[in-house]
Amino acid sequence: MFQFIVRRLIQLIPVLLGVTIIVFSLMHLTPGNPAQIIAGESAPKETIEQIENRLGLNDPIPVQYFHFLKDAVMLDFGTSWRTSLPVSQELAPKFWVTLELAVYSTIFSIFLGLIAGIISAVRQYSIADVGIMLVALFGLSMPNFWFGLMLMQWFSLQLGWLPPTGWGSPQQIILPVITLGTMGAAVIARMTRSSMLDVISQDYIRTARAKGLKERVVIYRHALKNALIPVVTVIGLQFGSLLAGAVLTETVFAINGMGKLMVDRILARDFPVVQASVLIIAVVFVFVNLIVDISYKFLNKRINMD
Amino acid sequence: MNQETILDINDLRTSFLVDGFEVKAVDGVSFKLPKGKTIGIVGESGSGKSITAMSILQLLDKPGKIMGGEINFKGRDLTKLSEKEIRDIRGNEISMIFQEPMTSLNPVYTIGQQIRETLKVHQGLDKQRGTKKAIELLTLVGIPSPEQRVKQYPHELSGGMRQRVMIAMALACNPELLIADEPTTALDVTIQAQILELIKDLQSELGMSVIMITHDMGVVAETCDYVAVMYGGKVVEYQDVKSIFKSPKHPYTVGLLNSIPRHDTDVDELEPIKGNVPSPKDMPEGCRFAPRCPFATELCTQELPTLDTQADGGEVRCWIYTDRWDGDPEVNVRESKRTAESE
Q1: Last residue of a domain, one of B132, B152, B172
Q2: Contact B90/A209, CB-based, under 8 Å?
Q3: Measuring CA to CA, which residue among A3, A15, A83 is closest to residue A279?
Q4: What is the pTM assigned to this prediction?
C-alpha cells in the first residue's frame, strides 16, 4: 500500500509538468498583450515596453516557462501583475471558499444521490423509482446557472427565506450548495441504481437472504459495499469537476471564490494568478483520485495495489 | 413410510407473473420427506426443481410467487408465515446451499465474518465465540488450517473449498433440513465426490434431512433415499431410490436413466431424450411429456394423468399404469428405444 502511494506520487510529476506546459502555452498564445492591458488603452509605447521588459515578456517563451517552473517548484508563484500582491496571498482565501463550496456540494450530492439510488434500485420500476429517475434526469440536464437563478428567485426573492448572495453564514451556503450539488447527486443516483441492481441479482445476495438476515442488512451490508466501487469513482471525478466548475455558481451567487477570480484574471491577462489557480486545481484533482484509488482497496480486497 | 415426516409439501404451485401472464413454474407438486432421510428432486433444466426448493424458504426472485398449496415443516405451514417468522427459520432450522460456490459467497467479507453473521443472527454469538464456532465448523467440513481460513476472503479459496465454506455456513445452527440445490454441478468430478461424501457423512452425524436437487442420476444413486422425478412443473414419479433404478416406471425416468453411462451393460451408445423441456408458457394440454414420449397415445396428448400410488408403493403419473390405457397392453417402458426404433 505504501509503495503504491509513493508510486502514484511520483507519477504526479509528469502529470503536473504537462498541466503547466498546457496552461503556460495557452495563456501565451491567446491574443492580447498583458502589458497593454496593465498600462491601459492609451498608454504611450515607452511605458508598454518598460512593462514588457519588467515582466520578462520579451524573453523567448521557453525561457519564460523555465523561469516560471523554477519558481513554481519552490512554491513561489510570483506576484500578481494586476494587484502586485504575492499570488499565494491572493489565492489562499479564495481557494478555501471554493474548496468549501466543492466539499459541501460533494457531501450533499453523495448523501442525496446514494439514498435516491438505493431506493430506486430496491424498488425497481415502482412509482418511487420512476419519480427519482425523472428528477435525476432533470437534475442532470438543466444548466446550473439557470437552476441557481430559479432557486434564488423562489427562496430569496419570493419567500425571503435565504439570502440571495454571499458566502459564509449557514444560510448563505444552502442555495449555492444545492445549485452546484444537484447535478452530482443525479449522476451518483443513476450510478448507484445501476450498480445496486447489478449486485442485487448476484448469488451472494441470495445466500445472505438464505441465512435469515433482515432485508435491510442484506441491502446495506451485503449489497451496498459491493455496489460502491463504481459510485466512488464517479464521486472522485465529480469532486474535481465541482472544484473547476464552480465558476458559474460563484458568479450567480456573487461568491468571491477561485472560479470567479480565475475568470477575472484571465480577462486581465494576469498570467501568474491564472497559472497558479489551474495548477492548484490539477493537484487537488489528482489527489482526490488518488484517495479514490486507495479507497478501492478498502471496498474490495480483491483489488491488488501492487 | 412410517417414520416421522419432517417436510410435507402438498399441491405446491409457484408462478411467475410476467406482463400480466401467469407462468406456472411449479404446478401442484407434492411429496413427503421422512426425518433424517434424503430425497432427490431430479429433472432437466426448466422442470421446476430449483423453483420448488426456492419456494420452501421463499427465496424466489421477483416476480415469482407461491400461488397455493402447503409446505408443512414440523407441523407449521411455511407459506402462511410472516416475513419475520420465515427469516427465523432460514439458515437456522432450514439451510440451503447453492449451485455456484464461486459466486455464492460475498467477495468483500472474510469467510469468518460470513459464518459469524449467521451465528449472530440466530444464536446471538459475539465475535469471539462466533470465531471459535466458525473454526469448529470449518474443521467439521474438512478445511485444513481453519484458523487461517477464517481470516481469508472467498477469492483466496478454490471452488471446492468455497462449497465447503457454504456447507459450514449452512450447518452453523444445526439445521434439521438442508436443501442442496445442485451442490456439485459447478465442481470438478473428483471434488464432486468429496462434497457428496461430506454431505452424507454430516447428515448421518447430525441427523439432518436433506433435499438434493440435481439433474444427475449418479448423484441420486450416491446420496438419496427417495427420488421425486419432476417434469414440466409436476412430479411424474416418486419412488425409493432402489426401485427407481431397478424398475423405473415413467417413460421420462427411463429416458433419464438411459442417458447416463452404465458399465454393467454392453450398450456403447447413450440414448438422449429427444426434444426439449416444454416452456412453462405453452405447456402441452395432456401429459407434459407426451410430445417427447415414445409411447404417447391420443389419450396422453389430451388428458393429464394423475399421480397414482402403485402396488409396490411408488407413485407415477402415467396413463400406462391405469385402466384407461389405450396403447399396447404389453408395453414395457424399459425397452423404450429399441422397441420404438425397431418398429
Answers
A1: B172
A2: yes
A3: A15
A4: 0.81
